[in-house]
Amino acid sequence: TRAAFPLSFIENATTAGTSQMFLTYRYAFMAKEKTQIGGALGLGIIFLRTELTATAGATTGGPDTTIVQYSREGGFNGPSASIGGYGRFRLGDKWYLESDLRGIFIEIDNIKARVVELGAAGRYFVSDKIGLELGYNLGFYGVDITGRQNFAGIERTGKVSYTVNGWRIGGVYAF
User: What pTM was computed for the model?
Assistant: First the structure.
């Protein structure tokens, strides 16, 4: 006789979420009445969260079914930094358009980290100093760890790559 072991997933649920907190410092190398071009330095923290829940069942074809449940939650908070350029363009008396392009690549021993961040925003100033901003950011992040053999001859390697994007809305104080 032959035994059959069909495996079927009964339920699974996976969620992943990301939040980001960042600060960008900009310095204009060229500042004209309607245009600014300069350097930008971004510093921040990325908050990654994941949750996985699964239930699987296996049967031999008879009345008995084996059910296995699996559930894990995890998170990681990682620093981010990038350096690059920005442009600010005056579109009217109170309207501005901003763009950012920043990145960084760091290799330390057996760890390689890379960041590329892009951003665009529109600003409307309600007074000389106070404004409103609507923007969009897109970031590509990655860490590669190439392994080394430990005392038992086991090598561990890993790679984490993810994309973060999102809208932002807020206030601006120009000084």
Answer: 0.70
